[in-house]
Each structure stands twice: as C-alpha cells, then as structure tokens.
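Lecture notes, structural biology module. Today: joint structure prediction for complexes of two components.
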Amino acid sequence: MILRLFRIRGGVHPPEHKHPTASRPIEACPLPARLYVPLQQHIGAPAEPVVQVGEKVLKGQLIGHAQGPVSAPVHAPTSGTVTTIAPHAAPHPSGLPVVCVTIEPDGEDRWESAPAETDPFLLTPREIGERVAAAGIVGMGGAAFPSAVKLGAATRTPIHTLIINGGECEPYLTCDDRLMRERAVEVIDGVRIMLHGTQATRALIAIEENKPSAIRELKRAARIDERVMVVRIPALYPMGSEKHMIQTLTGRELPPGRLPADLGLIVHNVATAFAVHRAVRFGRPLISRIVTVGGGALREPRNREVLIGTPIEDLVECCGGFAEEPARLLMGGPMMGQVIPWNAPVVKGTSGVIALTREEIHIGETRACIRCGRCVSACPVGLMPLEMASRIRADQFDGAVDHGLNDCISCGSCAFVCPASIPLVQFFNFAKGELVARKTAQDKSQVLKLMAEQRQARLEREAREKAEAAARKKAEREAAKRAEQEAAARETGT
Amino acid sequence: MYAAIVVLTAMGLSLGFVLGLAARLFRVEADPVAEKIEALMPGSQCGQCGYPGCKPAAEALARGEASVTLCPPGGRALAEELAQLLGVQADLSGVKDAVPMLARVDEDLCIGCLKCLRACPTDAVIGAAKQIHCVLPEACSGCGKCVDVCPTECMQMLPIEPTVRTWRWPKPVLAAA
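The predicted structure, tokenised, for the full assembly:
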C-alpha cells in the first residue's frame, strides 16, 4: 500500500551535522556521583515528593506522585540515598532553580521489583492508560506532555490513526534514529500497545528519508502487524512538528486552537513508543532515555543512554569532555533548543545536549530589515514574520497577534534564513511571554477587584448591623426607662 | 419640488421628535465612559494615583483632568488600554511597568496589632489579635497600604521573585541599525 503524501508550505534545509553520532551505537553512561531529579519535568502541575531526606530508595521506586489531571509521577533512576529535596539549577533558559530530589547512588543499582512480563494485549485500553500514567511517561520529543493524558483522550473522541513521529528534523540529533535502528522490535511493540490502548485502526510511523537504515529496520520489524505502516517522508525542517507531520500524512491542516484528537489523530514520538513498551510489558517506569551528546566543541560526540537526573557535566565528561570551550550549550537541537546552565540535569524531555563552537553558531551582526520576504517563504505556518517582528519591536502586541503570533510554532525557520540576522524567533518568544504575563496580571486584577468589592460590601454590612444594633439597644433602654417612670408614677398616684 | 420639501421637512421633524423622545426616555444617569474606565482599573482603591479610589480616578479621567498614565499598578498595559478607550495619543515612553511587589510579614517583628489587616483593601492579610499575621500572595495587590500603618515596620514590600513558571523571555536588544 502506498500512502499519498502532501506538501507543507515553507520549511528550510539546515546543514544536518548528524553523521558524527548517527554511525555509532548507543552506549551506556556510568553512574554519576549524584543524580538531581526535578519534580517538574513535564507540562502541567509538578509532582509532589513522597520520600524524605535520608531515606533509602530503590531503582524504579516512586519518589514523587502526580498532582492534578495533567501531571506525571517521578521515579528513582537508581538505588541510593535521598540527600536533599531542594531547588537546583533547572534545564531552562532562565537558569532559575526548581525543586529536585537529589539521590546519592549506592552503586548497587537494585530494582524495587523483579522483572515480570505481562501480555499487554490482554489488558483493557484503560489499564494501558493507567500503566503509562503510573510509569511517568511524557512526550519524549521535547515538549514533555504527559502521554497518558493524550492516550486518555482516545476514550472521549474516537481515534482512527496513530501517528508515530520519527521525523527528528533537528540538526545534530540522532537519538531517535539510533533507537529505531537498534531497538526496532521494541519500538514496534510499543506502537502496537498504543494501537491497542487507543483502539485506532492503523499506525503510521513517519520517518524522514535521510534515515534509510531506520526505515529498513522498522519496516522489517513491522511485518508482524499489518496495521502498522512505515512511511518515508521528505527531509525538511520542521517536519517533526506535530502539525506539519499531520499535514504531510493526511493533507489536513490542524485549525488554530484544535488538538489532533479533533481530527481523529494522535501523535507520539518513537522514543515514547519505546518507553510505553518498557512500561506496559515489563512494568518499568521511565527512568532513563537516549540523549545525543553532540556539537563541534565535544571530543567524542555519542548517543548515550542516560539516567534521568544525570548532571550535564557528568554526561559531557563521559563523552570525553570538551575539545574546546563551547560558545553555547543547548538542550535539544540547534533550531529550537534552549540555552541551559552547566549544572542542570538531564530530564525526560532532553533529546540532545549540544555544545556548539563559535564557528557553528556564527551570529552575524543584526542589520536593518530590507523586507526581502525570505522569512515569509520559509515560514511553515504561512505567517509574515517580518510584519510580526516590526510590531513587537514597537510593543504593539495586539498587532502581532492580528498577524498570527498565536499560530507561530517558534520553529526558528525565519531567523535561520534571515539575511540581516534579525533575531525573529526571539522576538516572538518575548511577545508570547509578554501576552501570557498580561493575561495573568489581568486575571489577578479581576480577582483582586472582586475581593475589594466584597470587602467593601462586608464593611457596609457591618456598619449597618452595628447601627441597627445600637438603635435597638437605644429603643430598649428608652422602653425600660419609660416603664420605670410609669411604675414610679403609679406608685406616687396610689 | 414642493412635495420634496414637505416630505423632507416632515421627515426631519418627525425623526427629531423621535430622537428627542429617546433622549428623554433612555437617559443614562452616570457617565458611561467613567464606568468603562472603572471596569478597566485594578479596583484595589490603593490611592497611588492621588485620587481617593478607583472610581474618582476614573471620573477624573473621563473629564479629561487626569493622564492615562496615572495608575502605577496598572502599568503600561492599562495606560495603552485607556489611551485606546479615550482615543488619545499618550506618550507611554515614560511609563515603566512597576516591578510587581508583594507585602510580606517579618515574623520576628510582628506584634499582631491587626492594623494592616484593617488597612488591606483586598483582605490579603490573615491573622488575629496577638497572633503573627501573614499575607496571602494571591490576594495581595502590592498597594503598600499595610506598610504605612505598621507600627513595627515588620511589613515589607518585596519584588516577586521569578520562578521557572513565571519567567519570561526578555526583549531582544538590537544594535542601532
């Protein structure tokens, strides 16, 4: 069966830089001296710690349970002692700390429970969702949205197609490529479990054409199930974006503000499929992931299977350290990745740690916009980045929203092609943050206004009640006085 | 020609009559602009604008006696909205978004006098007589009224520390192009 593919608009072809890591197998990383496991590694509410300082934990033991409907639990990546539960540098561009559970490994790496295999196809879809939630699985392509919430959406709206995202369009990153090549059988098993969990009728595994070995391996492994189909898609950035993958495969454009589930689709990353296989078949929580450690500043760029919470420093150390001082350290790929602090740990959404040299980032001097329109033809959403940026520069956020700021996916294609080196995507990120900040301030001001009004009403009511009570007392006093006088008059009269 | 004159005159008179009647029947008591302005204002009656509360400030704005940049807690966003509503061009370059502040009680100095609790326009202070008070950050508007009345100077206004959740990207700084 041949699937008809559809074109997306825009897109760019950044230099791939994938070969230094793509040709080498995944290697394990030695246990670091300390693991910093953040309680918030996902979109939604942070997990609540359930361990105490000084407590001994075993590998895979729950250390933070999910709070609220959109959240994910956190597990101990190895056995050891909890030394602190305190703020530590987060893998976030702000460099601000988040609460982390620090574990000092005892070196035994002892699991909490013995391995036990269950047949996932005997479970109900609901049970699969529960197991995925309990394992703390989040979207591993980078957005880190709790996967169980997505799978659970299938119980509300019927899903016909499960799309597995093997795009990996970001330069440098090869962790999904290596995973698909080396663990194709497990990935396909995870896909089949998710098919069972969502009751979808087919699964499309979309892989960019620049990963021929991964396509071959997955095609071979997918022979056991005719519902699973491996699709070769063109290599174009940002093909790995959920919206663009849907458009390529189905020809349908996701309307603003709608979810793929509204179109009967659900999109998961290949690494998520692998994590689902481990969680549902073997009951193992998400405590490690494959990370591409790359970039020109690194001595031995590799794909490493890393425990969640491993500090970036240790990760770089086990890849031979730096050949030269990196000009920029990124988490994720160079297009959408974020600058992170040195001592931040690896989290569930870390697909890569990229140390770039000065030549690789080549920031040109920003010059004036000549309205050449290259950003317009590069924008995969069909926006006009130059118009949006000029408005944001003048702080006209409403104007930028009118030009589609809320539809911008911050992919960075516009800034990549801009011949004047204008930091377009940085302007959009700033404006999006500003809009959120304004919304929160407005919401708070509404609440405060209500509180001020209620206080005013209460003060008035209290004053009124006081006056009424005073009036009543006065009337009583006068009545008593009158009665006294009348009694006295009667007495004198008799 | 006479017919046209008669018809137009009759139309003018009758429409004028209807309009006059409508103006009498549907007369609006308050100044609707002032009401609209008040709806935009923070409403905490903090008095930082120099008027006794948000309503008098809104009335002054509607009369054109006050500048749209009068409200420090509203900041730049409010000034922009007000300028749009009133149709005036305002110079917003001088308006800086005040760093949002929150009141906090120093537990070592609080004597539980209840003064701040009574002064707070949004009931953000909780406590009882001779008990250490506490400020609910969600309810604090940062107006600073409590600081003025505190006899032991234990109430402090502190800038809100950004967290990973509240941190926002700064505006890119461009070299003069």
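Point to remember: The radius of gyration of chain A is 30 Å.
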